[in-house]
Every structure is written in structure tokens, then in C-alpha cells.
Write a structure and sequence with these properties.
87 residues; alpha+beta; 3 helices; 2 strands; globular
């Protein structure tokens, strides 16, 4: 928990509208729960500006009960909502 808060605070200092940061995370279908919790903390932090988070996963390996989809459903209800795109 403290490490997650420290990493979010670090990204808050690094990412800014003047110098944005892009994080691309691939193969999220294999992400463990602490990693998904960290992603959720990034998405919940309203003071974090200048961060673009792009995640990719194989939808054929993710079912409705997968923790990643629970995170995505939760993010869809936030403002601004997370956008999903299929490729």
C-alpha cells in the first residue's frame, strides 16, 4: 500500500500537462492483482495530470469474471470515462 502511494506520488511529480507521460502496458490479461490495484490507483488519482495510460489485452483470454474487466467496468463510471477500442 505504501509503495503504491509512493509510486503514484512519483508519477504525479513526473507527469504534467507541460511534459506528459505515456505508459503503455501490454498483456494485461496476465496482470496480477497488485498490478491491477496500482493501475486503479493511477486512474483514481484526481491530482495526476498529464498521464496517458494505454493498456492492451487479449479479449479471448479474459472472461466476465476476470479482475481486469472489473477494473475496466469501474473506470467506465468515472469522469472522464476510460475509453476502450478494439483492434
Amino acid at each position: 500500500m505504501r509503495l503504491r502511494a509512493l509510486l503514484v506520488a512519483l508519477l504525479r511529480q513526473v507527469a504534467a500537462p507541460e511534459h506528459p507521460l505515456v505508459l503503455f502496458l501490454d498483456d494485461l490479461q496476465w496482470a496480477d492483482q497488485p498490478s491491477l490495484d496500482f493501475i486503479g490507483a493511477l486512474l483514481e488519482d484526481t491530482a495526476l495530470r498529464g498521464l496517458l495510460l494505454i493498456g492492451a489485452y487479449r479479449d479471448n483470454e479474459v472472461d466476465a469474471a476476470h479482475p481486469l474487466l472489473r477494473l475496466l467496468r469501474c473506470c467506465a463510471n468515472r469522469q472522464p470515462p476510460a475509453r476502450r477500442s478494439r483492434c
